[in-house]
Amino acid sequence: DADVTQTPRNRITKTGKRIMLECSQTKGHDRMYWYRQDPGLGLRLIYYSFDVKDINKGEISDGYSVSRQAQAKFSLSLESAIPNQTALYFCATSDWKSGLAGNVSHHEQFFGPGTRLTVL
Amino acid sequence: AQSVAQPEDQVNVAEGNPLTVKCTYSVSGNPYLFWYVQYPNRGLQFLLKYITGDNLVKGSYGFEAEFNKSQTSFHLKKPSALVSDSALYFCAVRAYDYKLSFGAGTTVTVRA
To answer: What is the per-residue burial (b if ≥16 Cβ within 10 Å, else e) of B14-39?
Structure first.
């Protein structure tokens, strides 16, 4: 989706290097997520953020860190890259809205195009 | 903890034939279920969701899904498949904390 952008789209790096993947969104959503995709494993959640001051670990956060610089920006860092972090990385966003009937959650997530990372 | 299973790694059908992609789920409380599609070199695109209401949910590109509470299933269907439907399909379930858990994915190949 053009509303969720990721940079870079492809990256090759070496073991031990620190790298950052960036995600920006123009949807105005307050919630942002980082996933990695591996063949046969689906998508696994690395970190998520429900607002600028809220950062939470997902199921596979070891070796990763994140920064929510603004509502629209959520960066993922690999502190010291290792080969088993070679994967396709996706950023996603979702919204939360209040309605007359109480809080109404817009449950679906919107994904960026992905970053293909190779660690040699 | 919630989980999703997609029992078939691959589904192959001929163009014009019905397409079904299977999904079963496990979750505490009411299930919130989703289907996404991923085309080559693209991100995931939302197809449809079940939150409440009718068990048959209609979504994008002619797809629909049937929620079956007794069988804890949420199978994706299309009455007449197109070659352009060839892609990777993911089922997902939302947890109480609004996170999504994804299945491993099913690769659909529609042959002309």
So the answer is: eeeeebebbbbbebeeebbbbbbbbe
pLDDT one-digit tens code per residue, B12-62:
999 999 999 999 999 888 888 999 999 988 889 999 999 888 899 999 999
What is the rounded (10 degree) CA torsion for A94, A71, A61, B33?
0
For B53-87, b/e burial (b = at least 16 CB within 10 A) is eeeebebeeebbbbbeeeebbbbbbbeebeeebbb
Under an 8 A CB cutoff, do B49 and A108 touch?
Answer: yes
Contact between A40 and B104 using a beta-carbon 8 Å cutoff = yes
A28-86 confidence digits (pLDDT tens): 888 999 999 998 888 999 999 988 999 999 999 999 999 999 999 999 999 999 999 99
A108 part of contact set with chain B, CB < 8 Å: yes
Residues contacting A112, CB < 8 A, separation 6+: A1, A4, A5, A6, A23, A25, A90, A91, A92, B43
Alpha carbon of B40: minimum distance to chain A alpha carbons (Å) = 10
Q: Which residues of A touch B34 (CB under 8 A)?
A: 107-108
